[in-house]
## 1
Amino acid sequence: MVEAEKSWEEAMWYCRREHTALMSLASETEHLLALSRIKRDHITERVWIGLRYLEDHWLWVNNDPLVYQAWSQRGNQDHQCPIYKRCGALTKEGVWENWDCQDRLNFICY
């Protein structure tokens, strides 16, 4: 868990330089592990994960297949065809949200 607040791209480069990559949540186990790491008061309400919308589909930046998904089931489905919010974040409630890549959030690296 990195407590610095960075844009998605800054977070991606930081993780590549200092660790391995932004974390992919390719399974329920990885999802639950990440969720346990962000449930602290001083962590931003959502954190960057290695999910990005490129060429009309979501993908993990480390090339893991996007099989497991945890998008919010409440009303807003703009992750299906995002115009501006093209980076993935995990909320403290445990759902994925598409978010503006320029927002500054904490993030999780491998």
## 2
Amino acid sequence: MVGLSCCMNCFYERRLRFVIIVVLTLILLQYGVNLFIFKTRSPFTSLSSHLNINRFWNQQTSRGRNDASLRNFNGSIGYSTKMVTQDLTRNRASIHSPAENTTGISQCPMLPPNLVGRIRVKLDKPSFLDLENKHQELQPGGHWKPTACISRHRVAIIIPFRDRHEHLRMFLSHMHPFLQKQQLDYQIFVIEEMPGIKFNRAMLMNIGYVEANKVYDFQCYVFHDVDLLPEDDRNIYSCPEQPRHLSVAIDKFNYRLPYTDIFGGACTLSKVHFSKINGFSNKYWGWGGEDDDLAYRVKHAGLKIKRYPVNIARYKMVSHKGGIANPKRWSLLQRAFTRFSTDGLSSLKYKVVATEYKKLYTLIKVEINEKDV
């Protein structure tokens, strides 16, 4: 009897182990099925597959593998696959008002579908009239946004200006098609300083920011010299997570960055960024220094300057006569950190002489006075 009892106990123990194994196997199978469903249905996975971001990035980098300027780049690119994905898929700062989202029109694709990469930069000088006839799609003031979808980025392009009408025609001819391919909701502002006083590029940028905000609810601002023309439409003028230096590789400098902290030529900042750093300094009269001052402000605010790779952020500079250098720029830069909170948007003084909503751009003529700074 004792032997029979032992056999029965062994039988039940084996049966219990078998049941436990079966239950554990079923649990693991269910976990695997759920994991598979999550991955295939995850919006991030399907989004990545739909946009094929990895292929997009590989295409970008493969075009630069044989580029000597990329191999010899003497500064930190400050850009990564992660940043590309963030820029192309970000939603947080590009949500439009409820009124726009109730129209039944969906947002534009995160990756604009008509980008081709390297584009030809034509140095033609069409007349303003020819350009106006060509761009019937523009709204007054040089404003455009896509009609088939809601743009993810509302961008003000701000250009400091004086006596450069030939360059302005070239810029407008090149930039309107460039920006429209990127499906941006944009407007071009030309801030013209009246004659009789030294040119103050940085102050005109501040004025452009303030005046643009009176016109439209922009999310970010591209501060752009009129003589720079981008050579690659993948250099997207979108609203950045961090301040972005756009004109990384310029033909004048053999498509190399002159120094790592440069932040001039063309750059973009969000409204939050620009307000946080108190804008540009107003004290740089004449050429030079204001861009380095801006870079100091960005770093002082705990922000980081980001850049697209040099094989994408390429620009052609239209030849022009250089301006008069600012003899005080070095001493101003040495004391820059002491003025961030008091010199900039908070101390801006100017007078608007005229505002003209032209077909191709918004012209704002202003008077500024060195004694007011």
## 3
Amino acid sequence: GVLNAAAVGVHDAFEDSAAYPSARARDGQGLTKGSDGSYATSDTVSPGGTTVLGLVGVAPKDVPSQAESAFPAAAREAAGTELRGVVYLDFAPGGGGEQGKVDKAESGLPEMSVEAVRDGTTVARATTAADGSFSFKDLDPGAYTVRLPAANFAPPYEGVSWLGPALVTPAIIGAYLWIWTGFAMVLIGAGLASLPLDTLEAARVDGATEWQVFRKITVPLLAPILTVVFVTLVINVMKVFDLVYIIAPGPVQEDATVLATQMWLVSFGGGNNQGLGSALGVLLLLLVIPAMVFNVRRFRRSQS
């Protein structure tokens, strides 16, 4: 599924999509929608017969320029082993016409994929012509279902929505990491520069591997610096507001909300619930206090 979506995305990025994403069938007009988004005829059709598949929901301006009238195509008869049909826009500009019947003013839908299905297996495929017509030749006797695959109605690839509901939180996390990476690198780099080299060399002389030197020597000696970085970033994460408010568009702010933004939203962003906003502010204060107390005690210990 992921590979198919990627292939469709690459294809649609360089070529126009032939799909009709807004098209749908009228209720009770002979087409049934499947769970995968496809449409299939409610009744079976046998070779030598014809079927008309009417769709709506396509604006006349969105019909391809090469589309022709479907009326002549719907009047053609099929041969003995042939199954014919037409996919058309069941809508006449200016009104009029009869639902479920091909009228002279109604156009076919070209470039539509059509399948002939028997016993759950696709036995033939075709693509509609400019007048919406299609045909399956040399079919074995029996009953067939004509299906319009879901790919006809899939919306074209429009790129990755980095600020949509699914990815807005990872996008904000990435922005936050990018902003504070420099701060962490400066402190950790200063700590690394102050490490006693003789201790590291002594560990290597005693046969310690680089991983053992890092885990047993470097990290313990950097523990005070790492604690400062960790506690500082924890406090900043708890009170982060500007990134979420600026990056997340209005419709998806609820999907990326944190305590600070939620406090603002319920108090001033349309909620007008000052009581809930105050409660969230107190909760945020209570969450930050332990980190602040820890920092103060650590500073006092370092001074003494």
